[in-house]
Design brief:
By secondary structure, this protein is mostly helical. The protein contains four helices and no strands. Helix 2 runs parallel beside helix 4 and helix 3 packs antiparallel against helix 4.
Length: 117
Amino acid sequence: MNSRTTLRRPARVVSAGVRYRLGVASRAIAAIAGGYGVAALSAAVLALCLPAAFGMARSEAAMTGTLTSFIVFALAVMWVFAARTALRAWSGLVVLALPLGLLLWLLLTRASQGGGA
């Protein structure tokens, strides 16, 4: 027998405890950063949409968007920790943030072209 084949090192395997801790850390980052991002996007979109949709004053629309973002942030945090996996939690936040980001971009480009919000 060759000494190289008998002295193989075992493959490094991530233990279940480490995997669990990494999943919780990933969810915590998703809850904090992703939840903040989704809440900020929703506040900005509401602040720009409410005056055009309901004739609301801009200051009231900004306040309504900001207050609503607290609810959005809380719901995002609950979603992140209720999701089955950390990957599903991240993907749920991305699925929510993409249309909000696109809508915000469209509203801002329309406002910058003189169309108003």
